[in-house]
Design a protein that fits this description.
CATH superfamily of the largest domain: Winged helix-like DNA-binding domain superfamily/Winged helix DNA-binding domain
CATH topology of the largest domain: Arc Repressor Mutant, subunit A
Distance between the termini: 33 Å
Order of helices and strands: EEEEHHEHHEHH
Number of domains: 2
Radius of gyration: 16 Å
Strand content: 5-15%
Number of helices: 6
Structural class: alpha/beta
Oligomer: single chain
Helix content: 25-40%
Largest sheet: 4 strands, mixed
Number of strands: 6
Strand order of the largest sheet: 3-2-1-4
Shape: globular
Length: 178
């Protein structure tokens, strides 16, 4: 299938655009994502697409605090290096963070932290491929296409879930204005 299917879903961090090629998730963008596309004329509304339905359900579970890992077919388009970085992102444990430098070391190129940052900035499947879990070497929140407030909220949310708070309570107490 050559069509791009899409659906915009609501979330506690604002609207999310979910993209499918009919067999895999190919994109997940926040409404403010700096590298994300706008809905294109040739995209087809895909609310009936099974991939989009499962992604929507799993995102709902994630934001409710009942899902810590996603189980979706992914097909992110990028260079070999970008795909290596994106695969490594999925190894970062829920509620934890790694630095760009740590990712570069794990990729076998300790001097490539800037390249890792650039690759992570092009991640087309945010949240599911958790680029929000990467921080600067000094521990500061840097470099997130959805904006630093969303990155901070996602990290605080994951930490709260690890300590047994409920997702609905967290978002009620920590609203994020999209």
């Amino acid at each position: 299938m050559n069509k791009t299917l899409y659906q915009i879903i609501d979330s506690p961090i604002g609207p999310l655009t979910v993209l499918s090629d009919g067999s895999s998730l190919i994109g997940l963008y926040m409404n403010v994502y700096r590298h994300g596309p706008s809905v294109k004329d040739d995209w087809v509304a895909g609310s009936e697409d099974p991939v989009i339905q499962v992604a929507g359900n799993q995102l709902g579970e994630f934001f409710a605090g009942t899902r810590m890992e996603f189980d979706l077919p992914l097909n992110a388009k990028g260079t070999e290096f970008q795909r290596q970085c994106w695969n490594l992102l999925s190894a970062i444990p829920y509620g934890e963070t790694w630095s760009y430098g740590e990712m570069a070391k794990r990729l076998g190129s300790p001097e490539a932290s800037r390249a890792v940052g650039a690759a992570n900035g092009q991640n087309p499947i945010s949240i599911v491929v958790p680029c929000h879990r990467v921080i600067g070497s000094n521990g500061k929140l840097v470099g997130f296409g959805g904006g630093i407030p969303r990155k901070a909220a996602l990290l605080a949310f994951e930490r709260a879930m690890k300590f047994g708070e409920s997702g609905s309570d967290f978002w009620a107490e920590n609203p994020l204005m999209p």
